[in-house]
Write the C-alpha coordinates for this entry.
Amino acid sequence: MSLNDTPSGERLHIGFFGKRNAGKSSVVNAVTGQELSVVSDVKGTTTDPVTKAMELLPIGPVMIIDTPGYDDEGALGELRVKKTRQILNRTDLAVLVVDSSAGISDIDRQLTELFRERNIPYLTVYNKSDIKNITALNENEISVSAAENSNIHELKEKIAQLAKTDKPENRIVGDLLSAGDIVVLVTPIDASAPKGRMILPQVQTLRDILDADAMALFTKEDQLAQTLEGLAKKPKMVITDSQVFGIVSKIVPEDIPLTSFSILMARYKGFLETAVKGAAAIDSLRDGDTILISEGCTHHRQCGDIGSVKLPAMLKKTTGKSLEITLSSGRDFPEELSDIRLVIHCGGCMLNEREIGYRMRSAGTQDIPFTNYGIALAKMNGILSRSLSVFPELQKIIE
Protein backbone atom coordinates (compact mmCIF):
# COMPACT_ATOMS: atom_id res chain seq x y z
CA MET A 1 0.00 0.00 0.00
CA SER A 2 1.50 3.34 -1.02
CA LEU A 3 1.31 6.47 1.11
CA ASN A 4 -1.33 7.79 -1.28
CA ASP A 5 -3.44 4.73 -0.47
CA THR A 6 -3.14 5.14 3.31
CA PRO A 7 -6.70 5.06 4.71
CA SER A 8 -8.00 8.24 6.32
CA GLY A 9 -8.18 6.59 9.74
CA GLU A 10 -4.40 6.06 9.66
CA ARG A 11 -3.51 9.64 8.71
CA LEU A 12 -2.59 12.50 11.02
CA HIS A 13 -5.50 14.98 10.79
CA ILE A 14 -4.29 18.60 10.67
CA GLY A 15 -7.01 21.24 10.95
CA PHE A 16 -6.53 24.92 10.04
CA PHE A 17 -8.75 27.26 12.06
CA GLY A 18 -9.28 31.00 12.52
CA LYS A 19 -11.38 34.01 11.66
CA ARG A 20 -12.66 34.82 8.19
CA ASN A 21 -10.06 36.51 6.02
CA ALA A 22 -7.16 35.62 8.34
CA GLY A 23 -5.65 33.79 5.40
CA LYS A 24 -6.33 30.19 6.44
CA SER A 25 -6.83 28.99 2.88
CA SER A 26 -3.75 30.85 1.67
CA VAL A 27 -1.66 29.21 4.40
CA VAL A 28 -3.15 25.80 3.56
CA ASN A 29 -2.30 26.27 -0.11
CA ALA A 30 1.24 27.35 0.77
CA VAL A 31 1.79 24.40 3.13
CA THR A 32 0.43 21.83 0.67
CA GLY A 33 1.97 23.43 -2.39
CA GLN A 34 -1.42 23.06 -4.09
CA GLU A 35 -4.41 25.25 -4.86
CA LEU A 36 -6.41 23.17 -2.41
CA SER A 37 -8.76 25.97 -1.32
CA VAL A 38 -10.24 28.94 -3.17
CA VAL A 39 -8.62 32.18 -2.04
CA SER A 40 -10.31 35.58 -2.11
CA ASP A 41 -10.32 38.90 -0.27
CA VAL A 42 -14.03 38.37 0.35
CA LYS A 43 -14.81 37.21 3.89
CA GLY A 44 -16.25 33.71 4.14
CA THR A 45 -14.91 32.32 0.85
CA THR A 46 -14.47 28.91 2.50
CA THR A 47 -18.06 27.88 3.22
CA ASP A 48 -17.53 24.18 3.95
CA PRO A 49 -14.61 22.19 5.34
CA VAL A 50 -12.18 21.25 2.56
CA THR A 51 -10.19 18.05 3.09
CA LYS A 52 -7.22 16.67 1.23
CA ALA A 53 -5.39 13.40 1.81
CA MET A 54 -1.75 13.83 0.92
CA GLU A 55 1.84 13.19 1.92
CA LEU A 56 3.30 16.13 3.79
CA LEU A 57 7.04 15.91 4.29
CA PRO A 58 8.65 15.38 6.72
CA ILE A 59 5.53 13.96 8.46
CA GLY A 60 4.20 11.45 5.93
CA PRO A 61 0.55 10.69 5.11
CA VAL A 62 -1.79 13.36 6.53
CA MET A 63 -5.31 14.68 6.13
CA ILE A 64 -5.35 18.47 5.70
CA ILE A 65 -8.60 20.21 6.69
CA ASP A 66 -9.36 23.84 5.83
CA THR A 67 -12.32 25.11 7.88
CA PRO A 68 -14.78 28.00 7.49
CA GLY A 69 -14.15 31.12 9.57
CA TYR A 70 -15.15 30.65 13.18
CA ASP A 71 -16.64 34.16 13.24
CA ASP A 72 -19.11 33.46 10.42
CA GLU A 73 -22.50 35.12 10.87
CA GLY A 74 -26.18 34.56 10.11
CA ALA A 75 -28.13 31.31 9.94
CA LEU A 76 -25.79 29.74 7.37
CA GLY A 77 -22.80 31.06 9.29
CA GLU A 78 -23.95 29.28 12.43
CA LEU A 79 -24.15 26.02 10.49
CA ARG A 80 -20.63 26.56 9.18
CA VAL A 81 -19.34 27.26 12.68
CA LYS A 82 -21.02 24.06 13.85
CA LYS A 83 -19.23 22.14 11.11
CA THR A 84 -15.96 23.68 12.22
CA ARG A 85 -16.57 22.49 15.79
CA GLN A 86 -17.29 19.01 14.45
CA ILE A 87 -13.92 19.03 12.69
CA LEU A 88 -12.30 19.39 16.13
CA ASN A 89 -13.61 15.90 16.97
CA ARG A 90 -11.11 14.40 14.53
CA THR A 91 -8.29 16.94 14.64
CA ASP A 92 -4.99 15.51 15.87
CA LEU A 93 -3.14 18.79 15.47
CA ALA A 94 -4.61 22.29 15.10
CA VAL A 95 -3.13 25.29 13.31
CA LEU A 96 -4.63 28.61 14.40
CA VAL A 97 -4.15 31.21 11.65
CA VAL A 98 -4.16 34.81 12.90
CA ASP A 99 -4.09 37.98 10.81
CA SER A 100 -0.90 39.56 12.17
CA SER A 101 -2.07 43.02 11.17
CA ALA A 102 -5.17 42.62 13.36
CA GLY A 103 -3.61 40.61 16.20
CA ILE A 104 -5.19 38.01 18.48
CA SER A 105 -8.98 38.39 18.70
CA ASP A 106 -11.64 37.06 21.06
CA ILE A 107 -12.52 34.50 18.38
CA ASP A 108 -8.92 33.29 18.34
CA ARG A 109 -8.99 32.99 22.14
CA GLN A 110 -12.21 30.97 21.94
CA LEU A 111 -10.55 28.58 19.53
CA THR A 112 -7.44 28.13 21.66
CA GLU A 113 -9.69 27.40 24.63
CA LEU A 114 -11.45 24.71 22.58
CA PHE A 115 -8.08 23.22 21.64
CA ARG A 116 -7.09 23.06 25.30
CA GLU A 117 -10.42 21.62 26.41
CA ARG A 118 -10.07 18.82 23.87
CA ASN A 119 -6.36 18.33 24.53
CA ILE A 120 -5.45 19.11 20.92
CA PRO A 121 -1.85 20.27 20.41
CA TYR A 122 -1.78 23.48 18.39
CA LEU A 123 0.38 26.09 16.70
CA THR A 124 -0.43 29.77 16.32
CA VAL A 125 0.52 31.09 12.88
CA TYR A 126 0.64 34.86 12.39
CA ASN A 127 -0.05 35.26 8.68
CA LYS A 128 0.60 38.36 6.54
CA SER A 129 4.06 39.06 7.95
CA ASP A 130 4.68 41.04 4.75
CA ILE A 131 2.23 43.59 6.23
CA LYS A 132 3.20 43.29 9.90
CA ASN A 133 5.83 40.96 11.28
CA ILE A 134 5.36 39.57 14.80
CA THR A 135 8.70 38.91 16.51
CA ALA A 136 8.19 38.07 20.21
CA LEU A 137 7.08 34.47 19.68
CA ASN A 138 7.19 31.30 21.76
CA GLU A 139 8.13 27.84 20.45
CA ASN A 140 4.57 27.10 19.32
CA GLU A 141 4.15 30.33 17.37
CA ILE A 142 5.49 31.40 14.00
CA SER A 143 5.16 34.40 11.70
CA VAL A 144 4.63 33.65 7.99
CA SER A 145 3.54 35.26 4.76
CA ALA A 146 1.48 32.94 2.59
CA ALA A 147 1.45 35.62 -0.11
CA GLU A 148 5.25 35.63 -0.33
CA ASN A 149 5.72 31.97 0.70
CA SER A 150 7.85 33.21 3.57
CA ASN A 151 8.66 30.90 6.51
CA ILE A 152 6.39 28.16 5.13
CA HIS A 153 9.14 25.53 5.28
CA GLU A 154 9.76 26.47 8.92
CA LEU A 155 6.02 26.16 9.59
CA LYS A 156 6.01 22.62 8.20
CA GLU A 157 8.98 21.77 10.40
CA LYS A 158 7.09 23.04 13.46
CA ILE A 159 4.03 21.01 12.47
CA ALA A 160 6.22 17.91 12.15
CA GLN A 161 7.84 18.57 15.51
CA LEU A 162 4.48 19.00 17.23
CA ALA A 163 3.18 15.84 15.57
CA LYS A 164 5.89 13.71 17.16
CA THR A 165 4.69 11.56 20.01
CA ASP A 166 6.22 9.08 22.41
CA LYS A 167 3.02 7.05 22.42
CA PRO A 168 3.71 3.38 21.54
CA GLU A 169 2.50 2.29 18.14
CA ASN A 170 -0.85 0.50 18.29
CA ARG A 171 -0.99 -3.02 16.90
CA ILE A 172 -4.04 -4.89 15.69
CA VAL A 173 -2.85 -8.40 16.49
CA GLY A 174 0.85 -8.65 15.66
CA ASP A 175 2.02 -8.20 19.25
CA LEU A 176 0.03 -11.31 20.21
CA LEU A 177 1.89 -13.48 17.68
CA SER A 178 5.29 -15.09 17.33
CA ALA A 179 7.26 -15.75 14.16
CA GLY A 180 5.92 -18.82 12.38
CA ASP A 181 2.46 -18.75 13.97
CA ILE A 182 -0.48 -19.57 11.72
CA VAL A 183 -3.59 -17.40 11.84
CA VAL A 184 -6.78 -18.41 10.05
CA LEU A 185 -8.98 -15.54 8.87
CA VAL A 186 -12.62 -16.22 8.03
CA THR A 187 -14.08 -13.85 5.45
CA PRO A 188 -17.59 -14.53 4.14
CA ILE A 189 -18.17 -13.55 0.53
CA ASP A 190 -21.79 -12.47 0.27
CA ALA A 191 -23.85 -9.70 -1.32
CA SER A 192 -22.39 -7.08 1.01
CA ALA A 193 -18.75 -8.01 0.29
CA PRO A 194 -17.03 -5.49 -2.02
CA LYS A 195 -16.50 -7.01 -5.44
CA GLY A 196 -12.91 -7.80 -6.29
CA ARG A 197 -11.35 -6.68 -3.00
CA MET A 198 -11.17 -7.25 0.74
CA ILE A 199 -12.58 -4.85 3.31
CA LEU A 200 -10.10 -2.59 5.09
CA PRO A 201 -9.97 -4.33 8.54
CA GLN A 202 -9.13 -7.61 6.81
CA VAL A 203 -6.32 -6.00 4.81
CA GLN A 204 -4.93 -4.19 7.85
CA THR A 205 -5.05 -7.36 9.96
CA LEU A 206 -3.28 -9.33 7.24
CA ARG A 207 -0.49 -6.76 7.05
CA ASP A 208 -0.03 -6.76 10.83
CA ILE A 209 0.21 -10.57 10.85
CA LEU A 210 2.87 -10.48 8.14
CA ASP A 211 4.76 -7.74 10.00
CA ALA A 212 4.93 -10.16 12.95
CA ASP A 213 6.55 -12.80 10.66
CA ALA A 214 3.48 -15.00 11.16
CA MET A 215 1.45 -16.69 8.43
CA ALA A 216 -2.12 -15.92 7.39
CA LEU A 217 -4.60 -18.21 5.74
CA PHE A 218 -7.91 -16.87 4.41
CA THR A 219 -10.99 -19.05 4.07
CA LYS A 220 -14.77 -18.76 3.88
CA GLU A 221 -16.99 -19.96 6.70
CA ASP A 222 -18.31 -22.93 4.69
CA GLN A 223 -14.74 -24.12 4.08
CA LEU A 224 -13.42 -23.48 7.59
CA ALA A 225 -13.75 -27.04 8.86
CA GLN A 226 -11.89 -28.39 5.84
CA THR A 227 -9.23 -25.72 6.26
CA LEU A 228 -8.58 -26.58 9.90
CA GLU A 229 -8.44 -30.31 9.14
CA GLY A 230 -5.85 -29.68 6.43
CA LEU A 231 -3.41 -27.80 8.64
CA ALA A 232 -0.30 -29.66 9.79
CA LYS A 233 -0.25 -27.73 13.07
CA LYS A 234 -2.83 -25.99 15.21
CA PRO A 235 -3.33 -22.32 14.35
CA LYS A 236 -2.45 -19.68 16.94
CA MET A 237 -5.93 -18.21 16.57
CA VAL A 238 -8.93 -17.83 14.28
CA ILE A 239 -10.17 -14.35 13.38
CA THR A 240 -13.61 -14.11 11.85
CA ASP A 241 -15.96 -11.58 10.38
CA SER A 242 -18.46 -10.85 13.15
CA GLN A 243 -21.54 -11.64 11.13
CA VAL A 244 -20.64 -15.37 10.99
CA PHE A 245 -19.56 -15.60 14.64
CA GLY A 246 -22.28 -18.12 15.45
CA ILE A 247 -21.33 -20.48 12.61
CA VAL A 248 -17.59 -20.19 13.15
CA SER A 249 -17.75 -20.72 16.93
CA LYS A 250 -19.36 -24.15 16.40
CA ILE A 251 -16.56 -25.22 14.04
CA VAL A 252 -13.45 -23.94 15.84
CA PRO A 253 -12.31 -26.29 18.66
CA GLU A 254 -12.39 -24.79 22.14
CA ASP A 255 -8.61 -25.02 22.49
CA ILE A 256 -8.08 -22.60 19.58
CA PRO A 257 -8.56 -18.92 20.49
CA LEU A 258 -11.31 -17.22 18.50
CA THR A 259 -11.90 -13.50 18.00
CA SER A 260 -13.12 -11.12 15.29
CA PHE A 261 -11.84 -8.33 13.09
CA SER A 262 -14.25 -5.96 14.78
CA ILE A 263 -13.00 -6.80 18.27
CA LEU A 264 -9.39 -6.36 17.15
CA MET A 265 -10.25 -3.00 15.58
CA ALA A 266 -11.84 -1.85 18.85
CA ARG A 267 -8.56 -2.71 20.56
CA TYR A 268 -6.57 -0.93 17.84
CA LYS A 269 -8.69 2.21 18.13
CA GLY A 270 -8.49 2.23 21.91
CA PHE A 271 -12.04 1.45 23.05
CA LEU A 272 -12.13 -2.33 23.55
CA GLU A 273 -12.58 -2.29 27.34
CA THR A 274 -15.36 0.30 27.09
CA ALA A 275 -17.06 -1.76 24.40
CA VAL A 276 -16.87 -4.96 26.46
CA LYS A 277 -18.47 -3.21 29.43
CA GLY A 278 -21.07 -1.54 27.20
CA ALA A 279 -22.32 -4.82 25.77
CA ALA A 280 -23.81 -5.72 29.16
CA ALA A 281 -26.62 -3.24 28.42
CA ILE A 282 -28.08 -5.69 25.90
CA ASP A 283 -29.34 -7.81 28.81
CA SER A 284 -31.39 -4.94 30.24
CA LEU A 285 -33.02 -3.57 27.09
CA ARG A 286 -36.76 -2.91 27.36
CA ASP A 287 -39.63 -2.42 24.96
CA GLY A 288 -39.39 0.95 23.23
CA ASP A 289 -35.67 1.46 23.88
CA THR A 290 -33.80 3.18 21.04
CA ILE A 291 -30.54 1.68 19.80
CA LEU A 292 -28.14 3.79 17.74
CA ILE A 293 -26.21 1.69 15.22
CA SER A 294 -23.40 3.84 13.87
CA GLU A 295 -20.94 3.32 11.03
CA GLY A 296 -17.87 5.45 10.46
CA CYS A 297 -17.94 5.13 6.69
CA THR A 298 -20.60 5.86 4.10
CA HIS A 299 -21.63 3.18 1.67
CA HIS A 300 -24.71 1.96 -0.13
CA ARG A 301 -26.55 -0.32 2.28
CA GLN A 302 -27.41 -3.60 0.58
CA CYS A 303 -29.77 -6.43 1.29
CA GLY A 304 -28.35 -8.30 4.28
CA ASP A 305 -26.30 -5.33 5.46
CA ILE A 306 -24.89 -6.04 8.93
CA GLY A 307 -25.69 -2.62 10.42
CA SER A 308 -29.17 -2.03 9.08
CA VAL A 309 -30.45 -5.61 8.79
CA LYS A 310 -28.52 -8.31 10.65
CA LEU A 311 -27.78 -6.47 13.90
CA PRO A 312 -31.34 -5.15 14.38
CA ALA A 313 -32.78 -8.58 13.65
CA MET A 314 -30.50 -10.30 16.12
CA LEU A 315 -31.10 -7.67 18.80
CA LYS A 316 -34.85 -8.18 18.59
CA LYS A 317 -34.51 -11.97 18.48
CA THR A 318 -32.09 -12.11 21.43
CA THR A 319 -33.91 -9.67 23.69
CA GLY A 320 -37.47 -10.47 22.65
CA LYS A 321 -38.17 -6.75 22.92
CA SER A 322 -39.72 -4.26 20.53
CA LEU A 323 -36.79 -1.93 19.94
CA GLU A 324 -36.43 1.28 17.99
CA ILE A 325 -33.39 1.29 15.70
CA THR A 326 -31.78 4.48 14.45
CA LEU A 327 -28.81 4.55 12.06
CA SER A 328 -25.96 6.98 11.48
CA SER A 329 -23.05 6.82 9.06
CA GLY A 330 -19.98 8.80 8.11
CA ARG A 331 -19.52 12.02 10.06
CA ASP A 332 -23.18 12.22 11.12
CA PHE A 333 -22.76 10.99 14.68
CA PRO A 334 -25.40 12.80 16.79
CA GLU A 335 -24.21 15.12 19.55
CA GLU A 336 -27.41 14.64 21.57
CA LEU A 337 -27.92 11.06 22.78
CA SER A 338 -30.48 11.55 25.54
CA ASP A 339 -33.06 9.36 23.77
CA ILE A 340 -30.55 6.58 23.09
CA ARG A 341 -30.31 3.51 25.36
CA LEU A 342 -27.28 1.89 23.70
CA VAL A 343 -24.74 2.81 20.99
CA ILE A 344 -23.40 -0.01 18.82
CA HIS A 345 -20.56 1.26 16.64
CA CYS A 346 -18.66 -0.34 13.79
CA GLY A 347 -14.96 -1.13 14.19
CA GLY A 348 -14.10 2.40 13.08
CA CYS A 349 -11.49 1.51 10.47
CA MET A 350 -12.21 4.71 8.50
CA LEU A 351 -12.09 6.97 11.57
CA ASN A 352 -8.97 8.10 13.37
CA GLU A 353 -8.48 7.24 17.01
CA ARG A 354 -9.34 10.77 18.15
CA GLU A 355 -12.78 10.73 16.51
CA ILE A 356 -13.62 7.29 17.85
CA GLY A 357 -12.49 8.52 21.26
CA TYR A 358 -14.77 11.55 20.98
CA ARG A 359 -17.78 9.36 20.16
CA MET A 360 -17.01 7.02 23.04
CA ARG A 361 -16.58 9.91 25.49
CA SER A 362 -19.70 11.65 24.17
CA ALA A 363 -21.73 8.55 25.00
CA GLY A 364 -19.97 8.15 28.34
CA THR A 365 -20.64 11.69 29.53
CA GLN A 366 -24.32 11.13 28.77
CA ASP A 367 -24.32 7.74 30.59
CA ILE A 368 -25.00 5.83 27.38
CA PRO A 369 -23.37 2.37 27.09
CA PHE A 370 -21.08 2.12 24.06
CA THR A 371 -20.07 -1.10 22.32
CA ASN A 372 -19.30 -2.30 18.81
CA TYR A 373 -20.57 -4.74 16.21
CA GLY A 374 -18.23 -7.63 16.97
CA ILE A 375 -18.64 -7.52 20.73
CA ALA A 376 -22.42 -7.15 20.52
CA LEU A 377 -22.67 -10.09 18.12
CA ALA A 378 -20.35 -12.22 20.25
CA LYS A 379 -22.48 -11.52 23.31
CA MET A 380 -25.73 -12.31 21.52
CA ASN A 381 -24.20 -15.56 20.25
CA GLY A 382 -23.23 -16.45 23.82
CA ILE A 383 -19.51 -16.53 23.03
CA LEU A 384 -18.28 -13.17 24.31
CA SER A 385 -15.97 -14.70 26.90
CA ARG A 386 -14.52 -17.06 24.33
CA SER A 387 -14.05 -14.28 21.76
CA LEU A 388 -11.92 -12.45 24.33
CA SER A 389 -9.71 -15.46 25.07
CA VAL A 390 -6.72 -13.64 23.56
CA PHE A 391 -7.35 -10.89 26.13
CA PRO A 392 -7.72 -12.77 29.45
CA GLU A 393 -7.68 -9.53 31.47
CA LEU A 394 -10.91 -8.49 29.71
CA GLN A 395 -12.55 -11.88 30.25
CA LYS A 396 -12.53 -11.12 33.97
CA ILE A 397 -14.81 -8.09 33.36
CA ILE A 398 -17.69 -10.27 32.20
CA GLU A 399 -17.20 -13.21 34.55
